[in-house]
Amino acid sequence: MKAVPFAICLTLVAAQAQAISRYDPTHMSCNKIQSTIAREGAVILRYQSSRVPGLPLYDRYVQSERFCNMGEVRTRASVPSADTSFCPVYICKRPDVDRRFHRRFFHN
After folding, report:
1. Which residues contact 3 (CB under 8 A, 6 or more apart)?
2. Cβ neighbours of residue 27 under 8 Å, at least 6 residues apart?
3. Where does the secretion signal sit in this chain (predicted)?
4. How far does the chain reach from its first CA to its final CA, in angstroms?
5. What pTM value is reported for the model?
6. How far does Cα 14 stand from its chain's mean position?
7. 86-102 pLDDT, tens per residue?
8. In the chain, what are the helix, strand and coil shares in percent, each to the nearest 5?
9. Rounded to an integer, what distance in angstroms lies between the CA atom of residue 37 and that of residue 14?
10. pLDDT at 63 over 50
């Protein structure tokens, strides 16, 4: 009897995880990438590494900090696009504060 509500909860969690859109930024202009992120709030961009052939790279790119998890901040990043090699976008990172120098560093 308890298995049914548990199965329903798992189904809802899986449906929410599939809701984020995935794109290949190398087939989009920089303006299209930025407008897609602005429209959807958060997207996953997947592309091939320029340094290691065949290595796929991906991350979750966001419009604002409200799409970040608690304790994370929005920070600048860049992705390759069809028209530029560095299209400016934002990702969420967890800051690490160096108490001695009062500077923030970001974990990868």
Report:
1. none
2. 82
3. 1-19
4. 43
5. 0.71
6. 18
7. 999 999 999 876 666 65
8. 30, 35, 35
9. 22
10. yes
